[in-house]
Design goal:
Order of helices and strands: HHHHHHHHHHHHHHHH
Mean pLDDT: 87
CATH class: Mainly Alpha
Distance between the termini: 12 Å
Number of domains: 1
Number of strands: 0
Largest sheet: none
CATH architecture: Up-down Bundle
Radius of gyration: 22 Å
Helix content: over 70%
Strand content: under 5%
CATH superfamily: MFS general substrate transporter like domains
CATH topology: Growth Hormone, Chain: A
Shape: globular
Low-confidence stretches: 1-7
């Protein structure tokens, strides 16, 4: 039997994982507002804002494999993962706060661009120090095919609840009209207050996750190789990871998926505020079913995914989420959807928000779990435990794709000549049509293309079980 195999996962462990999702949800929520904050409130062009966010994503992507390699091979009294988890706390909360509080002395567009680049890089590197070892621990705590999905599901559920919960509070509390600002989405003070609360939540979340799993340090598997922390060993291990057919399939699917998600995230506020013309109050209500989608994930993830092949379920989630997300936009472009301001539109979008969120969360949980299942395949071939390298290599590809999606979103805003400091209801119909035309078909096409690539993933339930059994037999022979 593999050393310190943990057969059963306690409720405390699952909730520790859930606590880590809080900070990640707050951070992800920033994607929905940072473009509109810097573009519409602070006056930075959409292209420069998108470029600044893309630069941070690319540098973060480069850093991710390095963090994965270091955390795989790190030796300390705190184990392999926890030194990085603890190191991530302060930079993450500090740079998140600074992101929403640019100094008043910044007046030129170039200075604002540089400030955004620096804050985004610092924040993303801090998050990478946390997320790479956090997800790598999944494969170390359990080798169970279904339990991994459930464990990730707890983190993903908390991530979604706080991601969408922040949006709900943003529109209900912070982005409301004032005597000085008639349009709530232009309320700079609201963004600043949200930035303070978000920074505190990120710090508490990371600390709770790290301390909650601290007791596992003596029990986590030792990294079974004699590699040094040299660049040559890093390149060799990354090369071995890329040789796996299933990882390449996940990588390509992830590239397409995260490019679509990056575009979706930065244009979400534009779609809901300007395309659908929902008020801040209405959007705060529309986010409620999205929050409930995260809550529903916990009881549903086991019922929907357990006993089934992860690849098949991932394809089903891809198709379902893509259709729910894009159909309202496409129907509006064809003149087949209720008019803005109607009660029917509001209730349709309420229902769509719930199912879209639930499907995306199930998909995210499956993709991380599928990635964790590659750990044993790689160990059987190479004799090394490379959870961090595997996850961070995929993360590298996905973040580069996310950077591309973010840049595309900013370029779309400029290409359709979306006006700065725009008021809801006053943007030209032709501009809004072009926004929907650029958004709906693009997102749908990318998600469906990702389904094609995911077909190349070959780690089935039976293959995984056989691999784990072989590793246990090998470990037993070595011990004897």
């Amino acid at each position: 039997m593999l050393k310190d195999e943990i057969a059963r996962i306690s409720g405390a462990t699952r909730w520790s994982f859930a606590s880590g999702g809080v900070g990640l949800g707050v951070f992800e929520n920033a994607h929905y507002f940072v473009l509109i904050f810097y573009n519409q409130v602070l006056g930075l062009s959409g292209s420069l804002t998108g470029l600044a966010l893309a630069v941070g994503l690319i540098l973060d992507a480069v850093a991710a494999p390095l963090v994965g390699f270091l955390s795989d091979n790190w030796k300390s009294r705190l184990g392999r993962r926890h030194p990085f988890l603890y190191a991530a706390i302060l930079p993450s909360l500090i740079f998140y706060f600074l992101l929403w509080h640019p100094p008043g002395l910044i007046e030129s567009e170039l200075s604002l661009f540089i400030y955004l680049v620096v804050c985004n890089i610092g924040l993303r590197i801090g998050l990478t120090l946390f997320t790479v070892p956090a997800y790598a621990i999944v494969a170390e705590i359990t080798s169970d095919y279904d339990e991994r999905t459930r464990l990730v599901g707890y983190l993903t559920a908390a991530y979604s609840v706080f991601n969408n919960g922040m949006s709900m509070i943003m529109y209900a509390v912070w982005l409301v009209p004032t005597a000085e600002v008639t349009d709530g989405i232009l309320n700079q003070g609201g963004y600043e207050e949200a930035g303070l609360i978000g920074a505190i939540l990120i710090g508490l979340s990371m600390a709770a996750f790290s301390f909650g799993l601290h007791r596992y340090i003596p029990r986590l598997r030792e990294h079974r190789n004699d590699s040094s922390l040299s660049p040559r060993d890093f390149l060799n291990q990354a090369r071995d990871v890329f040789r796996d057919t299933s990882l390449r399939a996940l990588g390509m699917a992830g590239i397409i998926y995260y490019a679509a998600s990056g575009t979706y995230a930065v244009l979400w506020v534009y779609i809901y505020s300007f395309f659908w013309e929902f008020s801040s109050h209405e959007i705060s209500l529309l986010v409620i079913p999205m929050v409930l989608g995260g809550v529903a994930l916990l009881p549903l993830v086991s019922r929907i995914t357990f006993g089934r092949e992860k690849r098949n379920m991932a394809i089903l989630m891809f198709v379902g989420a893509a259709m729910v997300n894009a159909t309202p936009i496409l129907a509006r472009l064809l003149g087949l959807f209720p008019e803005n301001g109607s009660d029917l539109l509001f209730w349709i979008m309420m229902g769509a928000g719930f199912f879209e969120t639930l499907l995306f969360l199930l998909l995210d949980s499956l993709l991380v779990s599928m990635t964790s299942d590659l750990t044993e395949q790689n160990e059987l071939k190479t004799g090394r435990r490379n959870e961090g390298v595997i996850l961070s290599t995929l993360s590298f590809l996905q973040k580069c794709a996310g950077a591309l999606g973010t840049l595309i979103g900013g370029l779309i805003i400029d290409l359709i000549a979306f006006p700065k400091n725009a008021a809801v209801g006053e943007v030209g119909a032709d501009i809004l049509f072009n926004l929907g035309l650029a958004y709906g078909p693009l997102i749908l096409s990318l998600f469906l293309i990702a389904c094609v690539f995911i077909l190349g993933y070959r780690v089935s339930r039976d293959i995984h079980s056989a691999t784990v059994a072989q590793l246990r037999e090998n470990a037993k022979l070595e011990k004897d």
